[in-house]
Amino acid sequence: MIHSLFLINASGDIFLEKHWKSVVSRSVCDYFFEAQERASEPENVPPVIPTPHHYLISVLRHRIYFVAVIQSEVPPLFVIEFLHRVVDTFQDYFGVCTEAAIKDNVVVVYELLEEMLDNGFPLATESNILKELIKPPTILRTMVNTITGSTNVGEQLPTGQLSVVPWRRTGVKYTNNEAYFDVVEEIDAIIDKSGSTITAEIQGVIDACVKLTGMPDLTLSFMNPRLLDDVSFHPCVRFKRWEAERILSFIPPDGNFRLLSYHVSSQNLVAIPVYVKHNITFREGSSQGRFDLTLGPKQTMGKSVEAVLVSSQLPRGVLNANLNPSQGTYTFDPVTKMLTWDVGKINPQKLPSLKGSMSLQAGASKPDENPTINIQLKIQQMAISGLKVNRLDMYGEKYKPFKGIKYMTKAGKFQVRT
Amino acid sequence: MTAMQRLLQLPVTAVNMVKTVQSQVQGQEEDKSPVLTPDGVHQAWYSALQPDELRHLRSGAPVTISVSGMNQSIESQEWLRVSTARSTRFQSDATIALQEQGGSTKRIPLLVCELTGLIPVSLTGKEAESCFNWVTDTFGVSGKKAVILIKWVKILHDDLKEMLDSNKDSLKLEAMKRIVAMIARGKNASDLFPAVVKNVACKNIEVKKLVYVYLVRYAEEQQDLALLSISTFQRGLKDPNQLIRASALRVLSSIRVTIIVPIMMLAIKEAASDMSPYVRKTAAHAIPKLYSLDPEQKDQLIEVIEKLLADKTTLVAGSVVMAFEEVCPERIELIHKNYRKLCNLLIDVEEWGQVVIINMLTRYARTQFLNPNMNESLLEEGSDKTFYGSDEDEDEEEEEKEKKAEAPMAKRKPYVMDPDHRLLLRNTKPLLQSRNAAVVMAVAQLYFHLAPKAEIGVIAKALVRLLRSHSEVQYVVLQNVATMSIKRRGMFEPYLKSFYIRSTDPTQIKILKLEVLTNLANETNISTILREFQTYIKSMDKDFVAATIQAIGRCATNIGEVRDTCLNGLVQLLSNRDELVVAESVVVIKKLLQMQPEKHSDIIKHMAKLTDNIQVPMARASILWLIGEYCEHVPKIAPDVLRKMAKSFTNEEDIVKLQIINLAAKLYLTNSKQTKLLTQYVLNLAKYDQNYDIRDRARFIRQLIVPTEKSGALSKYAKKLFLALKPAPVLESPFKDRDHFQLGSLSHLLNAKAGGYQELPDWPEAAPDPSVRNVEVFTLLERVTTLTSVPEWTKCSSREKRKEKKVEKPFYSDSEGESGPTESADSESDSASGSESGSGLEESGSGSESEESEEGSESEEEEEEEKDKKKKKKELKKPVQESESEQSSEEEVRKHERKNKQRKSDSESESDEEEESESESSQSESEDSESEAEVKKKKKVAEPKPPSKPVKKECKKEKKEMSLLDLDDFEPAPSPQATPLNTFLSSSLVNDLEGLSLSDAVLSPATISPSSTLKSYELLHRITGEGLSVEYCFSRQPFPPDGNMVAVQMQFTNNATSDAKNLHMEDVKLQSGMRVKEFTEIELLPAGETATAVMGIDFCDSTQAANFQLCTHTRKFFVSIQPPVGELMRPVFLTENEFKKEQGQLMGMNEISEKLTLDANCRNEHSIVQRVITAANLSRVPCGSDKECRFAGRTVTSSSLVLATVASREEGAAQLTVNCEKMVIGTMLVKDILLALTQ
């Protein structure tokens, strides 16, 4: 399956390579570099590149290309999904997945890659098992290791792979038993010129951080499970139970994991939290354009809209923008033509606005494209779909765990066309 | 440049010193490692580079790299490659420096720093820091930006060697870490091989691991030395710890050294029969490694694969199928025996294994089953339309092909899905919910290639979900969606909006989404799609705009209604400022005009004007072609255009020139008066063109059109040749017909066959013998007994267990209950296709639940079928035993029976197999409740006492008669007559379980279970219960000790390795008024066995849970039982009049009605009755009207009457009315029944 893996940074240097079968020369990456040059944007490099003897399948995460070398037929998603899993694992281990972090921990990285694939076929990809095999570096452990010369590799032989619950390591012990669940929903929407919604859907996830002793068996039930349109589960969730009773029953992995991701598609269920009044015009013949933007809260259910960030790619003809924000700060990058306005919190009494003029290239005709406005925002303590967790029960262990649940709404791909 | 100058000023002596040091090194190394010398190529990179470096230093020239003097080592090639690829960067930044560092030490490091990461070794710690500082100071390279790699020629490796030889693990570890870091950066560390390989037996786990990493990387290059390590692994293979055995095998098989092939083969064979499933998994992984090393071993490896395929653990399944795919994908017959097992295990296999298995099974299914779409009408409508009459609306070509292939088959009998085919579809469906995109995609392609058309829809939602994943995932998924949306447009139509494009999408995603949108466009949605397209045209991404214009063109050709609108829109685009946009529009307009040119001469005129401005060759060529083609519509303009073009001829691109010639020729033919000279001029110019195509064309055309005395017969036809009516081009999707590649595969993505791609076979014309998938049971049994540990499958597959149960239930109810046709088909037609056609009829008749019944009805005759069922139970869910093979090998069967006896399972019969099966079946038949299926199953697993034979025989007869009766009398409405009997029955379930008395047997046939499937609930999961799993169901039996109690039947399964003792309950916590009658203590439940018990709970007509503790001799588990409201009642028998009277008294507050729309599968009376009875323990009240179904019951504790009515109207609308004194119960019941009817 996967022959080799090359890690390539933004400037085109191969800074790590790993081979699971015979060594494949680095020169195979030249095909990748060629494709990279052809692509206008970094994300436009095709994920699958055929070369005379190999196929290169790559993903771009954190400005690093993970390029897998394949020799024969394999489902491309298999490789892509695996590479993303590798990145997730790195992130889990090092906090961030940057070139520097990988270089600093090159040995751990290598050990991880060795365990995750055997002869190119995935072996152990569950983070719980990996953590049993190779302990993640922490500052304390790094210091202790340098002094005592001890190691990151687990002293005991791993048992996780053999257990009937392959995603959970055995013998977990905590003094504080806690289980936290974050319900995070993102609104993906396209709003057209007149302010009506073209599409809107909610993409939600429940991320869990479970630190419980022993082998707890949890059930999580919702007040309104019918809301969920389409769900995908962590392998630990008992599918039948969900089908029959709409209850999530599972033995959780230890630590952080994504329990569930779901989707609410019915458009009338999706509340659009903000509205945008915009007036972006260019006059024919003049080198000036008007820019006028006002934001206001729409359906927020009484919660305040925070961390609002507006960004827009202005037409190429715009040389500069001279704007006046009623609150927050704005920046305009004359090279990329990217306008960003960090609004902060929306005060319903005094709506934030950004007004002013744009100067265009003298003599150039008026640009005929209109910029789209991308909005990011956050609403705390509310899931916009109205999803509510009913209760969390624990079976199988005697102690009383501390349970916590948090709701949050964010804007996902929230675009306003002008 | 300053840096370079300073560098070059370094004293020559320093250089010489380095040189001497190096030569010493070489000398020493050659002494030390004899392995290195024989092949004469020294692997160390520095020796390869040295001449170059020195030359640069001496010559004083800027750093340019030459190959001369380099040997052929990998490093030198790489050096060359990098230097040529990035020569500018290299020259400016890469610098080779030499410095005396730290006067106190005598080391002379050669420091090499550059930006690109070329030179092998990096130092860590203090040394690196000081070097780094020196380099930055000296060269003024800004610190962070420069990645500084330092080559510490000899000293470093000496260091490492010293460290590796030391006694301290910490030093060894440090050295190994540095070496691994070198490998990670792609630097050569092969010269350290002897030093490293010594540590293979090191006690420290991390050192050992890193040594393994090193060994696997370099063993191939240093085969002789690698042999030194083999004995360590051989020892490891014998280790008592399974993990050590596994890791030894893993490394041993990863060392690519041909000499050890026999050792590897031996090790794999041994590991394949290891006790530990983990080791067996490793063995499966090792198979492809050995195969790639030595393909000669194929035959032996196939043997091992065959053996491992029979393995029943989820751990091994994925790996061995992967090995199968790599080594012998053509040996599809190896899968037969394991097919059902793989299907059943699938859900518990790890996700990567799932992908491989699903892909393999797709291929398998294509060779073994019939095309489910060959005559869909029968499946979809259940009508008796003829095959030919039905498929007019289908995809013509595809159908055409299929028709040819399948027609003879279809004539003979209607299509019936093989139960195994159904099994595969059913077991893969839940995986659409996987978090792993690859798994979802694999299931999606399986459904696309294998499922009946009506069922494919389910995958759309899951695929659309994947579109929110990473952009790479989106890319692949969209490619596949694009292909699917051509074949099955309807599937994605509801999700149209999910393919709308956002300005932030990468271009390649945008274009794919556009493709899908175009494929989905039809008359109804075209207006919304076109409105979307309008916004896209204003995008800043010009490639995307061009693609949008193409898409509009395709929509316009496909959908006649909007052609004019599209054309107008495109004409407007002609005045766009962006030339690319205009050019693209021209090309598309040209294609559109070709369809109806006469209407649009003004557009052609408009375009003629554009020739002055548009420079894009393709667009110019298109305009010229248009004018030429329709010169009759624009007689005045055409010659003028030609005049202008003749002027600029020499400066045009080739395609434009060709079109100018074309235009000239056409004009000459139609309007020779005006254009004769122009044509001559153009042809003359073309005659001397550089391009031979153009010269050829000119010569050809001159001969053709200009009449000379020599010109042949053709010139007469010149006008016909040039001005023939040309068919309009068809704008086709690039994704058309891509589905001949298996979807989701690399080959599909690239639209080219990738290496190792396994062709997806066409459906067979006639199904191969399905019996090849039947499995002989005794072999499996043997395995179980030989393994000391509890086999994994019993532990792992509780999920399937539940599923399996559900699957089997309807089977029984089918054969005994209302769906008579099945029974008759089964028993009457004992032809080879008997059971199949039976279940097929079923399927067409009664909707969804019948699908499940196929599972059971595999074998050919009724008796055999019974036997099969029994076997299946016995083995929990081992695949069905093939009856023929059984008969042929009766001895083996006996052996198997004996074994059964030893294991205290049911071994009722000593003599005849036939008899045993009969008795077995009859015995179960004789149970007097609707829960037969459930009870029987449990019994199969652990029935304590063998009943006497004669009784059984009688039962059998009884049963047969009854089943015939069923068909005639009870078929239309089985439940009302059936259920009331329950109330009269005095025998309890407990009695049943203790053995069959004659009275039971007599009574039992009278009970006809409604087809209700008794739902079983999980009380204790096997993981929580440490191996003990408990399930319960409401048996709907009267509970004799107390009539006010609801009988709850519990099934205990001991999955642990040790026996469970003293199973009883304690510490019952109840709401006030509730009472519990405990079940009798189970004293011993041996490992792997199952037992059943019944308890009674008086719920006081509430749905409050009963909480109690379930105790074994060691542990206590808190459990709770909560009844669905439908179980809190018992059926009563009322006549129609009584019902009406009672209903009249329960009006007003006591009546709750609810409107509903019936589920598509449950519009007939039969299924309504069935669903209601499943949801609530009610009995049916006879009723004159067939539009109404009435049900009656009484609550268990207070005996309040519960009446339910379902009145159906047209088109699935219906009204549900429940009358009950207890309003709470009524409300809840309405909800439950509503749910049952609408799902």
UniProtKB/TrEMBL annotation, chain A:
Superkingdom of origin organism: Eukaryota
Primary localisation category: membrane
Keywords: Cytoplasmic vesicle, Golgi apparatus, Membrane, Protein transport, Transport
GO BP, one annotated term: vesicle-mediated transport
Listed Gene3D superfamilies: 3.30.450.60, Mu homology domain, subdomain B
Membrane topology: Peripheral membrane protein
Family: Belongs to the adaptor complexes medium subunit family.
Protein name: MHD domain-containing protein
Originating species: Eleginops maclovinus (Patagonian blennie)
UniProt lineage: Eukaryota, Metazoa, Chordata, Craniata, Vertebrata
UniProtKB/TrEMBL annotation, chain B:
Location of this chain's protein in the cell: Cytoplasmic vesicle, Clathrin-coated vesicle membrane; Golgi apparatus
InterPro entries assigned to the protein according to its UniProt record, in alphabetical order: AP3_beta, AP3B1/2_C, AP3B_C, AP_beta, ARM-like, ARM-type_fold, Clathrin/coatomer_adapt-like_N, Clathrin_app_Ig-like_sf
Chain intervals with Low complexity compositional bias: 830-848
Protein name according to UniProt: AP-3 complex subunit beta C-terminal domain-containing protein
GO BP: any one term: vesicle-mediated transport
Every AP-3 complex subunit beta C-terminal domain range: 957-1104
Region (Disordered): 381-411, 795-959
Key words, A-Z: Cytoplasmic vesicle, Golgi apparatus, Membrane, Phosphoprotein, Protein transport, Transport
Matches recorded under Pfam families: Adaptin_N, AP3B1_C, AP3B1_C_2
Domain of life of the native organism: Eukaryota
Gene3D superfamilies: Leucine-rich Repeat Variant
UniProt feature coiled coil, ranges: none
UniProt membrane topology term: Peripheral membrane protein
Comp. bias regions, Basic and acidic residues: 797-811
Record's GO cellular component terms: AP-3 adaptor complex; clathrin-coated vesicle membrane; Golgi apparatus
Function description: Subunit of non-clathrin- and clathrin-associated adaptor protein complex 3 (AP-3) that plays a role in protein sorting in the late-Golgi/trans-Golgi network (TGN) and/or endosomes. The AP complexes mediate both the recruitment of clathrin to membranes and the recognition of sorting signals within the cytosolic tails of transmembrane cargo molecules. AP-3 appears to be involved in the sorting of a subset of transmembrane proteins targeted to lysosomes and lysosome-related organelles.
Homology family: Belongs to the adaptor complexes large subunit family.
Biased amino acid composition, Acidic residues: 390-400, 849-866, 908-932
The keyword RNA-binding is assigned to this record: no
